[in-house]
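To make the argument concrete, we let one protein speak, a sequence paired with a row of structure tokens, as a model reads it:
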Amino acid sequence: MTASESWGDAARALADKVAANALEWHEAVSETPRHLLVPHWWERVPNSPTEEWELVAHAEDSRARIAAVYGDETLVTRVGPLHADHAKAEQRAAGSPTSSSTLPSLIVSMMHRLNAEPGHQVLDVGTGSGYALSLFARRLGDEYVTSVDVDPYLVEAARARLAAFGRIPRIEAIDATGELPEPAYDRIMATVSVRP
């Protein structure tokens, strides 16, 4: 069995860990192929005197990739303006993280507290890798979920990666402080930080 064939076991183990107190999200976590949403990411260079990052780009069927992606870790996907998808092997980046696939336990905890139920219209602010959006779409249905992000690349990448495994929620490249795609939502979750 290749590592890519065993992602289901890794996803179920992650679900057991992060959805133990939010059982309504267990199936969504265990059935979402996070490895398809985060093919590359940045890791902080240990003991670096500046905020320096190195690219992690494991082979697609690597056991190391599956283990990392299905760990309860935030995977930084963009540092400053440089997205990991656009970096070259062994390239480094400097600066602060500007996009990520957020810590799964935090995402599930936020979703549990949001108390979204099937039939609710949900707005996900900050598409990022599309992982949280995928969880919402899996549990609530694609037609009930909208996600927005200011970065057109993140929107297009998430749209294509989600569609590759059958998820087609609405995703728009807009600033959430402006006009939203729908006039009203039952629930809104934001996973963005706002700099002063």
About this structure: The longest strand covers residues 52-56.
